[in-house]
Each structure stands twice: as C-alpha cells, then as structure tokens.
Amino acid sequence: MRILLVEDEVKLAHAMKRALELQKYAVDVANNGKDGLDFAIGEEFSLIILDVMLPEVDGIEICKRIRAANIHTPVMMLTARGQISDKVTGLDVGADDYMVKPFSFEELFARIRALVRRPAQTNDPVLHIKDLTLDPKTFTVKRNNELIELSSKEFSLLEYLLRNKNTVLTKEQIIAHVWNYDSDVLPSTIEVHVKHLRDKIDVKGENSLVHTIRGRGYTIRE
Predict the structure, then answer these.
(1) Taking the CB of the first residue and of the last residue of the chain, which one, N or C, has fewer CB atoms within 10 A?
(2) Is residue 29 within a helix (H) or strand (E), and if so which, with residue range?
C-alpha cells in the first residue's frame, strides 16, 4: 500500500517514513504544500497524511483541492493544534480523520488500518481467498493455516491483489501502489515478484491463485 506523507518537520517526516516502511507501506514524502499537492493530484495513493501547517499551501487548502479534483483517497489531517474548531474545519473540507501531535505510532497505524478498510465496508481486517489469509495488522500470511514467510514487497503485492480480488491490475497500477515514487522499477521486476509470490503461496497440484492476463496484467481469483 502506498502512502503520501506531507509534513514540513523534516525529522518527524523521516521518523514517520521509517516507521511506516517497517509496517510494509511504500511512502512518498513532501516537505511543503506545493509538492504535496502535486503528488496528491498527479499520483495514486491508498492514503494521504496531511499536516495542516505547511509552507506554500496549507493542508486545509490541499484537502479542498484534491476533493474538488474528485479524488476520494482517504485523508488524515495531522497537526499540533488541538482546538475543536481546527478539527471541524479539516473534516468539513473532506478529511476522513484527524490526529493531534504528539501521537503514538501505534495509534497512527491503527487509524491507518481503519481508514484503508473503510471503503470496503467490512469489519473483518483479514483478507482471504480460498484457504489463503493475509492479516494486515500482524503481517501474517497463511495457507491452510500454515505460516508463509514473504518479503516486504511480496506482502504488499499480495495485499494489493487481495484488496482488488477478481480485478485485473496492470503492471503500472501495481508499481504505483506497491513502490514509492523514487523507486526505479521495471515491468520485468513485477514479473519476478509475481513468480516468487506464486512459488510461496501456491499449493502443489492446484491451480495458481494469481493469474496472468496476457497483455493486461494480473489478478487473484479462485
């Protein structure tokens, strides 16, 4: 899953980026509002985390503009302000959640999981197909109740496929959601990761869960 973090406090942004990457998220960081707005409108993300007080363009204005552009990506506002009026303003312009600094990373992770689940309208955080399960909270993947060890990118790839079960995803979509903007990823890289993923999750004698749709991309289905 790919996250955009727009935060002008460089040390905090760096700490959050590292913490989120340890949670297996791909993270792009912008340290001012103009760059953040360009990222938010020009790229695809699963979640946008916006500081309110930003140079050039503030977080409230960024949220207004991305909603005006018909972008429905979940937005979490992040700020040192704690007044109710600030929270109301952020939510009124289209933010989905609001956190006040300082905060714990554990709470941040929990809120991110809740925001990502919300569009699917499900109370079950565990993703599954047949006897394969993926738990985004514990980062565990099991097939027939047996634990499967995946690399960070393999886990993110499988999670993206499962969140879009029965949907054909192009290589470009996979790159956009699993890798960050600075990554130099070739289409052949996707092929390698898909092969490694199949090697780990497939059961001998059964059809693969991950299907190649020639000329289009990949999908996961029974």
Answers:
(1) C
(2) strand 26-30
pLDDT digit string (tens) for 71-115? 889 999 988 766 667 778 888 888 999 888 888 999 999 899 888
Task: Locate the domains of the chain by residue range.
Answer: 2-120, 127-220
Q: What is the CATH number that goes with domain 127-220?
A: 1.10.10.10
Question: What residues pair up with 146 in beta bridges, in sequence order?
Answer: 143
Closest CA to 73 of 92, 89, 97, 51: 97
Q: Which of 10-19, 119-128, 176-185 has the lowest mean pLDDT?
A: 119-128
Q: Which pTM value belongs to this model?
A: 0.68
Domain covering 2-120 in this structure, CATH number: 3.40.50.2300
The predicted-structure confidence for 179-203, as pLDDT tens digits, reads as follows 877 677 887 889 999 999 999 999 8
Instruction: Give, in order, the Cα–Cα distances in Å from 11 to each of 58, 107, 197.
Output: 19, 19, 35
Cα distance between residue 53 and residue 204, in whole Å: 54
